[in-house]
């Protein structure tokens, strides 16, 4: 059994990228969007945690900054699961008993 973080401690990958790369290097949202070929609106939504990290965006950030795309996608999945748990939106499904 692994260590489980409280859902409130799990970070969305967009704001994490903003804090870790764009802000320290004074890269604007507009510059970043242009660099990887997406709209400013899409970049802003991601970096502010209003939209999810896609596989394509994760690969773009990997090429731009060296952070592994699979790491960013795992962050996104962890964040999505944590949000479901925090909101109490876990599915009401019982364990399936397989008789063999």
Distance between the termini: 27 Å
Number of strands: 0
Shape by Cα distribution: elongated
- Radius of gyration from the alpha-carbon trace, in angstroms: 17 Å
Q: How would you sum up the major sheet? A: none
How much of the sequence lies in strands comes to under 5%
What would you note in describing this structure?
About 55% of the residues lie in helices and about 0% in strands. With about 100 residues, the chain is mainly α. It is elongated, with a radius of gyration of 17 Å. The model has no long low-confidence stretch (mean pLDDT about 90).
Notable traits:
100 residues, mainly alpha, elongated
Give the arrangement of secondary structure elements.
Layout (H helix, E strand, L loop, with lengths): L12 H10 L6 H8 L3 H8 L7 H11 L3 H18 L14
């Amino acid at each position: 059994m692994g260590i489980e973080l409280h859902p409130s401690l799990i970070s969305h990958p967009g704001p994490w990228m903003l804090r870790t790369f764009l802000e320290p290097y004074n890269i604007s949202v507009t510059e970043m969007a242009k660099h990887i070929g997406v709209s400013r609106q899409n970049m802003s939504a991601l970096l502010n945690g209003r939209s999810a990290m896609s596989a394509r965006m994760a690969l773009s950030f990997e090429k731009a900054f060296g952070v592994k795309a699979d790491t960013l996608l795992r962050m996104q999945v962890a964040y999505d699961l944590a949000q479901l748990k925090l909101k109490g939106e876990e599915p009401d499904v019982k364990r399936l008993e397989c008789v063999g």
